[in-house]
Structure formats: C-alpha cells, structure tokens
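Good morning C.,

I know you're traveling, so I'll keep this short. The sequence:
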Amino acid sequence: MHPISKALCQTYTELYSEGQVSFPLHDAQREAIDAVVKTVNANYFGIERFKTPREKAAAYLCFIIKDHPVTDGNKRLAILWFEIFCEIYGLKPDYSRYSLDEMAVAIEKAKLDMTQLLEVVEAILFPLG
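The tokens, ready to paste straight into the viewer:
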C-alpha cells in the first residue's frame, strides 16, 4: 500500500473514531483508497499524470469524491486530505468564490468528464495571478 494511502486510511479512521463517519474501513475500502492514490501519483511511460502539487491537490479532491472509495464520508475525507496536502506543500487555495464545502458538493454533482472537472477545480481553487 502506498504511504499516502496509509495516511488517508488513518485519517478516515480518525474521522470514524470521532463519530464523523458511520462505517469503519474494510479491506475493499482500503484498496479503493489505494487505487485513488496510485491514480493521482501515476507515471505513464515516465510522464507524471499530475505534475504539480496544485494538480495533485485538485486530483485528490476530485477523485476521492467522484470515485467514492468509502461507504460514508467521501467529501469529508476529500476535504480533510485536500487541506492536509495543501498545508504540506504550502499551497494557498482561494476560497473567495466558493467554500471548500460548496466545492465538494459541486464536484459530486458535476457532469463533466474528469479531465474537464480537474481543470475547472484547479482554476477555481488556484487561480493564476
């Protein structure tokens, strides 16, 4: 299991122990979390799919929400991991247009393909300039 997957599983377990989510993790959910992490960190023919921390932050947020790896708390896990990831990499998301909760709900409801969704989310949370 990828080290980030282990950290995400620990984060979810903390949410569970605090009563923030209703179901404990099982092997299938751990594997689904690991699949998300491996997707975000994938290399294809030596080329990283998501090259920058900003791209990876947006990808974690979107993939955790859209791939629905856990039974309960996908948006909470995605938001918490997004904030942790941004803190680690010194990223400063812009919440002037939308709160992170609003973004999570919009991501969940979005009908865009994943490439388009990632571009929109990154542009909103990390505008240029």
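Safe travels,
E.
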